[in-house]
Amino acid sequence: MELYVFMFMLATLVSSENKVVREFFYMNGCSDTEKENLYGSDGEELWHADFIKGEGVVTLPDFADPGGFDGFYQNAVAELEICKQNLAVAIKAYNNPQEKMDKPQSSIYAEDDLQLNVENTLICHVTGFFPPPVRVSWTRNNEALKEDSLSQYRPNDDGTYTIFSSLPFTPQEGDIYSCTVNHKWMLMCLVLVQLCFVEWVCLLDFWESLLELSSSLKETTATDIPDMEANFENKLYIKMSPPKDLCFHVILMLSAFTGAANGYYYSRWATCFHSSRDLSDMVLVDRYIFNKDVYIEFNSTVGEFVGYTAHGVYNAELRNKDTNYLQQERAEVERYCKHNAEIYQSAIADKTVPPKVKLSSVKQAGGRHPAVLMCSAYRFYPHWIQVTWMKDDQPVKSDVTATEEMPNGDWYYQIHSHLEYTPKSGEKISCVVDHAGLTKPIIIDWDPSLPEPERNKIAIGASGLVLGIIIAAAGLIYYKKKSSGRILVPS
């Protein structure tokens, strides 16, 4: 499959109807330290530019048809230069505005069902942050680890970003793994906390000095007041000097941090999205973003550029007056959006990977019932899936909690549903999983007769017994064959 290079940018949109909205997006972003050029679809990555190695990296899923991205890296280099120029213009146009920040939210989970001594992958999912970059580090039992991989920054609907860090590992009993996320928002908070603390110390020190002065004034005559004022100044200076210096240092640190050259982030997002298979409802949205604010946008349903700030209005008018430029942008719906959507639909979107399902008992962390079951589905695509519970073949509506579909960052997903219940003799509890990759739902019945470790021991023992019988039978057959044709001679 060969995709056309797209020179414009994408955003995501949610359908107002109960339809599956497919999207194909392009993102180009930069700051004084960050460089990114990425193509993706439905929140996943297809290709990105590695500006350090000077090459393009194909990140198609393993179930996709092979495809080509000829000329994409050369285009990414050209787009990066444009991004840097636009960043410089925007900084000047907006007169070095206050840098916007959003704190990252992170979670850590295993890619597959955790089993001791079985290779797996840990995923650190970091989302909701702005601006890039974030730094992710791993430890095992408080010792730093270096073997990990970091994905590209992926755009979210609200203007923030998502990134994944993965760590191959083999679970060992007693091991503790941790994922640490570093982002400038955290440093900002630390600075603000220090600033608030220093201001509080300064204020408290001032009032203590004032109270001491007031108490001293009650014990002096008017002629002593000048000397007391001198003492107050000296005392205030001595007690206030360290806090004032510290206040000044923190304020200076805060200003230097928020006004740092690499703080401002400029990007261009372009998205082609549709919900019909014939692509008749295809829409292109092309956005230019500075410091998280969209300042100019092209929407194919409107047919022209719209500015949202003075700088944006000025640039929108210039583009709309350029007839050739405007016609070229409108033509991208057919040339770029529909062309690539057809390729993506057959190469990836129409394919399915069924889930692996496991039903297990988990420890109760408080609740109204003494027992909890967890139904887990792993490594499925696409992410739409339905997990339900049944008791004695009747749907369960209460005491059920479930995670959303959790992305692994490699086109695969997982989900976990929990059921709180009170065990009853003879009751049958089932987990039902339905997915596009299945010809019929997977139904797993829970057997409460034995604890899970005991069931595992029995399963292993039974497997060993069967294997032993097979080996014995094979040996007997071999012996019979070797013994055939021999004549016994009496002694």
Automatic annotation (TrEMBL):
Primary localization: membrane
Keyword entries, A-Z: Adaptive immunity, Disulfide bond, Glycoprotein, Immunity, Immunoglobulin domain, Membrane, MHC II, Signal, Transmembrane, Transmembrane helix
Residue ranges annotated for the Ig-like domain, each copy included: 97-183, 355-445
Transmembrane annotation, as ranges: 458-479
Pfam family, any one: MHC_II_beta
SMART domains to which the protein is assigned, alphabetical: IGc1, MHC_II_alpha, MHC_II_beta
Compartments reported by the entry: Membrane
Annotated InterPro entries: Ig-like_dom (IPR007110), Ig-like_dom_sf (IPR036179), Ig-like_fold (IPR013783), Ig/MHC_CS (IPR003006), Ig_C1-set (IPR003597), MHC/Immunoglobulin (IPR050160), MHC_I/II-like_Ag-recog (IPR011162), MHC_II_a/b_N (IPR014745)
Membrane topology: Single-pass type I membrane protein
Superkingdom of source: Eukaryota
Signal peptide per UniProt: 1-16
Protein name as annotated: DLA class II histocompatibility antigen, DR-1 beta chain
Record lineage: Eukaryota, Metazoa, Chordata, Craniata, Vertebrata
